[in-house]
Amino acid sequence: MKVSLDLLRSFLAVHRSGSVTGAAELLGLAQPTVTAQLRALEEAVGRPLFDRLPRGVTPTAAGDELARRVADPLDRLAAVLADDTATPYPRTVFLGGPAEFLAERLLPALAGLVGDGLELRVTAGLPEQLLDDLVAGRLDVAVTSVRPRRRGVAVEPLYDEEFVLVAAPDWADRLPDPVTPQALRDVPLVAYAEEAPILRRYWRTVFDTRLTRTPSLVVPDLRAVRAAVAAGAGASVLPTYLCRDELASGAVRALLAPPVPPLNTLFLAVRPGLGGRREVQAVRRTLRAAADGW
């Protein structure tokens, strides 16, 4: 049985993206072309490779088996064809992540690669949108606070954010030691979202109680939350990497030092089939090494 590489590439793109539409975007082909290629491959192997759903497709057992057999050889071939030994970083890397983490950690860590010739395009976003963009081929690498559970996405833990309850000295001086939820009732709360997920999680894990108050100030950027807290707007919960300098200078104070502070893992995810590209490997290797010192 002879099957062209184009049919196998389209099949693998459909398997990884979970839809013909997503595969067409990933490959830069028209959707009818991918549909025809998939139909031709199924005729060649003599069995269905996907079950069609109202939205997208799901692989059959035969589809999963074929993907397992062809994924690595096709990925290796794609890496060879894309490789240009005349430059250390042959292709642009498209990177996505949380805006604050991009600005404070990811971009400084990657500055040396850019200086050495890496071309980098960066997108800030929320976890689900970043993962959608990764699977659709709009991103090559994403850092996300939600563990990806998409088919074919290579994922590894990158960094554990540690959270701290902070306020400006004027507010800190008015509070007892140790701070209690009751003592915080008269302190305005600053949050990055109306639902105040970070604050609510802190109250639940550290105080073992629900936060029932609404924030006094909501601003959709943790760097702005940091600035507002330092200016005396009230209290908030921030990742320690974002307020380390302010804590060291005394611009803000930690109101509590729980034995086990709340943690949140950030994950490094790579688009299917790109793990072997030299420039993607360089980004992953550099971020992993930098994370050891964060």
UniProtKB/TrEMBL annotation:
Per the database record, which ranges form the HTH lysR-type domain? 3-60
Q: Which residues form the signal peptide?
A: none
Q: Which keywords appear in this protein's UniProt record, sorted alphabetically?
A: DNA-binding, Transcription, Transcription regulation
Which Gene3D superfamilies does this UniProt record tie to the protein?
Answer: Periplasmic binding protein-like II, Winged helix-like DNA-binding domain superfamily/Winged helix DNA-binding domain
InterPro entries per the UniProt record, alphabetical:
LysR_HTH_N, LysR_subst-bd, WH-like_DNA-bd_sf, WH_DNA-bd_sf
- What is the top-level taxon of the source organism? Bacteria
Give a single Pfam family match.
Answer: HTH_1
GO MF annotation terms:
DNA-binding transcription factor activity; transcription cis-regulatory region binding
The family line of this record is: Belongs to the LysR transcriptional regulatory family.
For this entry, the protein name equals DNA-binding transcriptional regulator, LysR family
